[in-house]
Design brief:
Elements: H1 2-42, H2 46-59, H3 64-76, H4 80-93, H5 98-108, H6 114-126, H7 130-141, H8 148-164, H9 168-181, H10 188-198, H11 205-218, H12 223-239, H13 243-255, H14 262-278, H15 291-306, H16 310-328, H17 334-345, H18 351-368
Helix pairs in contact: 1-2, 2-3, 3-4, 4-5, 6-7, 6-8, 7-8, 8-9, 8-10, 9-10, 10-11, 10-12, 11-12, 12-13, 13-14, 14-15, 14-16, 16-17, 16-18, 17-18
Length: 369
């Protein structure tokens, strides 16, 4: 009798495992297609990205991130209706997702007037969603109903988006149009944007630095002056990482935790701290988790709490995990890598990032064993 019961139980377990296996494989395929689709999108291979993300959406139909990126891909290919359908599914699954919500509002014309549109574009610029900003600004600039002040504002928003997209030459052209055609509308924001664009032009770099220093000194108690101070710090760190520069950046973040540039500053701080670790002596198998990596993880934890988009959080996660693998993993310093990933798991990670961290942790633990 006992053998019969055991046989029945074993058969039931086998049947359940057999039924679950296709779902597990499908989820793994969807995750792989999603990651490959994002990589293809970032490389500008939009048709390949669309095919991969479409595949992911069929096997993982409850993942809002899949539909978010599918919508972005369709939008880049000019398939506006398909983009709207994908983003509709995104907000149905994740009503708080800001990018899809804003894009749906913009594409459907759910915008009452020009000033409301300008406010929407400002929000997109702050969220570094430059791929959504440029079509909106170009559409507005075609309108003959804009006042000089509004047109100047749109050109500045376009310049900010172009800078975020690493197109400083085009950004400077947009600012020059403001200065030439609408000089009465130009102000401190115009000056800041022009200096930021010229920081990337060797012949104008010194002038740009002088402009930022003057703006930071003259407007020290205003957000624009604080932004100029940050741009100077970021530029200096691009020239080389030193303890003094890193300390100044930390002090800037502590003094201005809610400034619109605070999150970019935190991202920069994480990156320079990780870079600082690699400047130390070559690691060995007994190298502990560095103090600079611990500082990076502490700031990353703040960032996760303040980052709305899961895609931005995941990009940060991948950067940290790649650092752990290259610096500690290649030196067989697995205890340090394990400590770092365990600290990372304590942060408020979105599901995709948590899965990546758990996978990395498992890999380090296996290598150590």
């Amino acid at each position: 009798m006992r053998r019969t019961i055991c046989a029945i139980a074993a058969a039931a377990i086998l049947a359940a495992a057999t039924a679950a296996a296709p779902r597990i494989y499908a989820q793994a395929d969807a995750a792989a297609a999603y990651q490959q689709g994002k990589t293809a999108f970032e490389a500008g291979e939009f048709e390949r990205a669309r095919d991969l993300l479409s595949k992911a959406s069929q096997t993982d139909p409850k993942n809002p991130e899949v539909f978010l990126w599918l919508g972005k891909t369709q939008y880049q290919l000019g398939a506006i209706n398909e983009a709207v359908i994908a983003w509709d599914k995104t907000v149905a699954l994740a009503p708080e997702e800001p990018y899809a919500t804003r894009m749906l509002r913009a594409l459907r014309g759910d915008i009452a007037d020009t000033d409301t549109t300008l406010a929407l574009i400002d929000a997109l610029v702050r969220d570094n969603l430059h791929e959504a900003v440029l079509p909106l600004t170009n559409r507005l600039l075609q309108s003959k109903a804009l006042t000089d002040s509004q047109r100047s504002k749109v050109l500045e928003q376009k310049a900010a988006a172009l800078l975020a997209a690493n197109r400083p030459g085009e950004a400077e052209a947009a600012i020059q149009e403001v200065l030439v055609k609408y000089p009465k509308s130009a102000g401190d924001q115009t000056t800041l944007l022009l200096a930021r664009a010229r920081l990337h032009v060797p012949a104008r770099m010194a002038d740009a630095v002088d402009t930022l220093k003057k703006l930071a000194a003259d407007r020290a108690d205003q957000p624009i002056g604080v932004a100029a101070e940050y741009e100077l710090l970021a530029f200096e760190l691009e020239q080389g990482v030193t303890v003094d520069k890193v300390d100044r950046l930390a002090k800037w973040i502590a003094a201005h935790p809610d400034h619109e540039m605070a999150n970019p500053a935190r991202v920069l701080f994480v990156n320079v701290q990780l870079a600082f670790t690699t400047l130390a002596v070559a690691p060995s198998s007994k190298t502990p988790l560095s103090a600079s990596d611990k500082a990076a993880l502490a700031t990353a934890t703040e960032l996760y709490a303040k980052t709305v988009r899961a895609a931005d959080a995941h990009q940060l996660t991948q950067r940290i995990l790649e650092h752990f693998d290259r610096y500690y993993g290649h030196a067989n310093a697995y205890p340090a890598a394990i400590e770092g990933t365990q600290l990372l798991l304590k942060a408020s990670l979105p599901a995709v990032s948590r899965q990546a961290v758990l996978k990395a942790l498992g890999g380090f633990q296996i290598e150590l064993a």
